[in-house]
Each structure stands twice: as C-alpha cells, then as structure tokens.
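Researcher: I'd like a structural prediction for the single chain below. Treat it as a standalone chain; there are no partners to consider.
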Amino acid sequence: MRSAILNISLLIALSLSSDLSAHGGGTNSYGCHNQSSTGTHHCHSGDYNGLSFSSQDAFLAYVKEQSESTTSVNTTEVSTSATTVRVSTSLGDFSIELFDDVAPITVANFLNYVNSGRFNSTVIHRSVSNFIVQGGSFSFDASSGNIVSVATDAAIQNEFSVSNTRGTVAMAKLGGDPNSATSGWFVNLADNSSNLDAQNGGFTAFGRVIGDGMTVVDSIAAQPTYTLAGLTDFPLINYISGAVVTSNFVNIAIAVETEEEPATAPNYFDEASGLLRVTVDAGTSGLASMAFSITATEPNVIVQLDLSSVVVLTETVDKIATFDAETGRLVLPELVVSGEVAFRNLSFILSDAEQLLFTLESFEKI
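Model: Treating it as a single chain, here is the predicted structure.
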C-alpha cells in the first residue's frame, strides 16, 4: 500500500511538471491581404494574426468594432467591450470572447442558451483530430443511462463573416441549410477556413478561445473516441468497457463572466458540472488545483481524481487542502457548497491507487 501511495504522489508530481502548449491586402498595414485561392481576406501578422474574413469590408467592420474599445483583440488580450463566457469542463476551464457586433444574432442566441442554463451538464459529443471538438447538443442522464438532446429554440439566420481559423468558435448546423443553427457549437482545432468557409453558406464564427484556453481544448481533443448512442467520434475519459458513467464524459457548464468575479473558494462543489474542485498542497510534489468526480455516495462517498485536470500553482492559498504521501490521506479544511461553507475537516483516504479513488472517512457538518 505504501508503494501505491508513493506512486500516486509521483503521478501528481508529473502532472504538475508537465508543460502543455498549444497558427494559426489594401489593408497591408494591418498585416492582412486578399487571398485569391480562397477569396477571403487573411491576416498573417499584427493584432489580427490568424483571422480570416469573407471580404475586406467584413474585415474593416471588425476593425471598427475593435477600435471602439481600449484593447485590441488577440489570443491573449480581450476587448473591453466584448462579452466573455467561462466554459467549465471535466478537463479544465477556458474562456470564449464573443463577437457581439460582428455576429449579433448568433451571440444573442448562444447567450440565451447560456443564461437559461441549458448548456450546464451538457457534454462534448464529437471530437475529430485536427478538425473540431463539438458540444451544446446533448447531455447524459445518469439515472437512465441515456443520451438526451438539449431543448432548442428556433433556428437562427446565418451570419458568416469571420473565418474558421484555429481557436474560433462557430455554430453547427444541418447540411444544405445555412440557416439551421440552434444550440450546437464547436471549436476549430485547426485552420478550417478552406473547408468550413466555403460550404453551406459558411459556418458562423461568433467567438474565439482566449488566453491559454486552447491547451484545455487540445486536452479534450486528445481523449479517445467511441461510437455511443449512434453518435460517432464521441470522446470519453478513462473508459475501458461496459456501461458509461458521468465521469466518463467531458461534462460542460457555461456562464457569462462579469468584470468583478467573486473570489472562488479553494475547495468547493461545482454544482454546474457536478465536480468537486480542490486546491491541494501535495508537499514536495507541489501545489495544484484539481477536480474529482463523485463515483459513489452509498454506502460510502467515493471520489475519483482526474489527473488531466491538475493545474500547477505557484502560490498557496488560505484553507488549502493537504495530501500526505505517507498515509495517502487528503484533508480539506472546509468545503463550500452553494456559496456557503457546508462542511469542515473532510478526510479522504486513498482507497484504490490504480483507479485514483478516495473514500470519505470523516467530516464535520456545519
């Protein structure tokens, strides 16, 4: 047992030390030009590097939008006037900057699903290597074991303008019907402009993943895929065989980011995704945030560590959890549920090192 405990400590250390990484004319001063092969207006440098547009006029409209804010849009800086949403997943979180002015109908439609909560507890149901990862259409009903479709509103008008380059987020739609988008959306893993810009009226890119968010998207894309409920290319996490469970899915929750987000507790139950999110001091292995899925509640509460969710931290925080490699014990000073401290001194013991399972030993209810 001691060797198993040391092994999990080593796994955490390796996760902490891993370094994840994630391309992309008349307007030449912007680093852009007309691309005759595709008929698009493409930018190779400057503030708009990697973006493509259906025409020079579309590009200039986009520039005008950005010039009205104090910060230019690129992969690391966010326009101060743009709406951003936070996508929480089983494999980490990322933010999407929405093109409010370029695709207003599409953005309004997307935000309607976000604000109604219909994207919460949905799953990524399609992942095609070097192409896209797609979600927004289905959720998993754990009680029945069925894949359930998201309730959709009426389809919207197509607003193709910005090209489908790597990191852009676009609406899915039915083949042969440009105006058929409802709730389905996808992230472009590569520059798909030569393909998606030219078919079905062009796929409307209405946002882009910002900061280092594509490392999370790439992690989702790295999961093995299966055929599930008649859906091909369905990514699953840590699946071997048999019936699927909630923790096998790339679960999703989406919320609009506000200018002043309240401080997040170091250890809390994420009701949107159903995950236990913990910030841990693992001793010599380092500091990290990580997510646990709840695999059982009776007769004992059992949680499973998702190693791919481990994110290295450089500074400790108040009320940080601790992991003792000698005993295999994980202790949470307190746990926040629904914004309130609900439990204190939760003690979990590593009960299955191979499956990364921890069993709740004791706790104090507030």
